[in-house]
Design a protein that fits this description.
- The protein is an alpha/beta fold.
- The chain has two domains: 292 residues, TIM Barrel, CATH 3.20.20; 104 residues, Golgi alpha-mannosidase II (Immunoglobulin-like, Sandwich).
- Helix content is 25%, strand content 18%.
- A seven-stranded parallel sheet has the order 5-4-3-2-1-7-6. A seven-stranded antiparallel sheet has the order 8-9-14-11-12-13-10.
- Helix 8 links the parallel strand 4 and strand 5.
- The C terminus is likely disordered.
């Protein structure tokens, strides 16, 4: 059965919950690796891990109703080997230690309760299990197949215990390639157990969608993708990391994803007790309020990016005021720097029929002269603490093109694209 891609292509915004024992140390999810904490010492964290303030029902209700998210990912196991579910292949689990809870089951049940699509993260690596990936690499005859069987067995567990799962989110593919992880066999098992499931490509072979991390890296047209993004600079909870993105930053990342037909998977790193850091919650609350008024400009399906080298590249979003998203018969100007009255937009190669502020519905008069559009009667000042979104309805598909010069040549010409020069491609 082919993977069910359509919902994912329309999702745009999701929640990634990155949680485990490492949160108790408050120095990020790689703390065991980066500080070479002895395994025996690290395992003692399970004796004080309770997750007593992690309430999935409240969290996922808010994700759907207040924050505008449409799917969620849960870390079933990170590279430290601690399972947040009732694995029968190891005792190093949340159910067999002080926590006593199957956190993955609670997550899945809450997703279903609140209408969110379900994705499960499971790393292939394991720093604690014996044998581990390095053992398998160094002593393949005795360690390789037992380790691979362990990895495949755990993936089988999470795909057979919780009902329908929409996405399997691999990670931790070092030190093997796809052949080393027996990835084709692993994916075949996943698709047999969960018909229609999507898998990413972090098992060493191409998956059903692409997962750039920490930056918006769009896939080729038609290829599903999502960007994993931390709200600060840490994946797991880090008490000293106060480098929070602003709500306006998140709105712009959402715009970039929507313009490229991709999704933003925004990471949440709960504290060790499972509570949500207040700066994270304040930010997504504000983004959620903005989405309730302007979501039409984000939950779109038209690719509208500055990619002027392509054959159909009569599109651009080069303006210092803000950039664009689009649907079939409209484009949306996400104005981050309000220029005052009147507003002028050039390079408009489609007929505009109406202009309105999306949040309020307020209509504005306009005049279109060739490819120059003037919008009159707008306020001289506007609060751009969050982007102000204007909707431009069009007779046909939206088209904008401004080249690098003052005039656009009427003959074939080298298109301007503010990325590294094409000359770099010449051997």
């Amino acid at each position: 059965m082919a993977p069910d891609l359509q919902w994912f292509k329309e999702a745009r915004y999701g929640l990634f919950i990155q949680y485990g024992l490492y949160a108790l140390l408050e120095r990020g999810e790689w703390v065991m690796n980066r500080e070479h904490i002895p395994i025996a010492d690290y395992k003692k964290l399970a004796d004080v891990f309770t997750a007593d303030k992690l309430d999935f029902d409240v969290l996922l209700r808010r994700a759907k109703q207040d924050w505008g998210m449409r799917y969620a990912v849960m870390t079933c196991k990170h590279h430290d080997g601690f399972c947040l579910y009732d694995s029968q292949l190891t005792d190093f689990t949340s159910t067999k230690t002080r926590c006593g809870r199957d956190l993955v089951r609670e997550f899945v049940d809450a997703c279903r309760q609140h209408g969110l699509r379900i994705a499960l993260y499971h790393t292939l690596n394991d720093w604690i299990h014996t044998p581990n990936a390095v053992d398998a690499l160094e002593r393949p005859r005795e360690c390789y197949q037992p380790f691979i069987d362990y990895v495949h067995g755990q993936v089988r567990e999470i795909l057979t215990r919780y009902g329908k799962i929409d996405v399997l989110w691999y990670d931790g593919w070092w030190p093997f390639d796809g052949q080393g992880w027996q990835a084709e066999k692993l994916n075949a098992m996943a698709r047999q157990l969960q018909p229609g499931i999507m898998v990413n490509g972090r098992c060493g072979i191409p998956g059903d969608f692409e997962t750039p991390e920490g930056h918006v890296g769009m896939a080729r047209a038609g290829r599903p993708w999502e960007v994993y993004m931390n709200l600060n600079e840490s994946g797991g909870y880090h008490k000293g990391d106060h480098n929070w993105k602003s709500p306006k930053d998140v709105a712009e990342i959402l715009r970039q994803c929507a313009a490229g037909q991709g999704n933003l998977m925004l990471n949440l790193a709960p504290r060790g007790d499972g509570s949500i850091p207040e700066p994270w919650e304040r930010c997504v609350d504000k983004v959620g309020a903005w989405l309730r008024q302007n979501g039409e400009a984000i939950f779109t399906h038209e690719r509208f990016v500055c990619s002027l080298r392509t054959a159909d590249g009569a599109r651009s979003d080069m303006t210092h005021h803000g950039r664009f998203t689009a649907s079939d018969h409209a484009f949306y100007w996400h104005i981050r720097n309000w220029p005052g009255n009147p507003l002028r937009l050039t390079g408009v190669e489609c007929r505009v029929t109406a202009v309105a502020e999306l949040a309020t519905g307020r209509q504005f008069s306009f005049r279109q002269e060739g490819n120059r559009l003037t919008v009159a009667g707008v306020p001289e000042e506007m609060d751009t603490d969050m982007p102000v979104v204007l909707r431009f309805q069009t007779q046909g598909p939206p088209r904008i093109y401004n080249c690098g010069g003052y005039n656009i040549p009427k003959v074939e010409h080298c298109r301007y694209d503010p990325v590294p020069s094409e000359l770099l491609d010449i051997p």
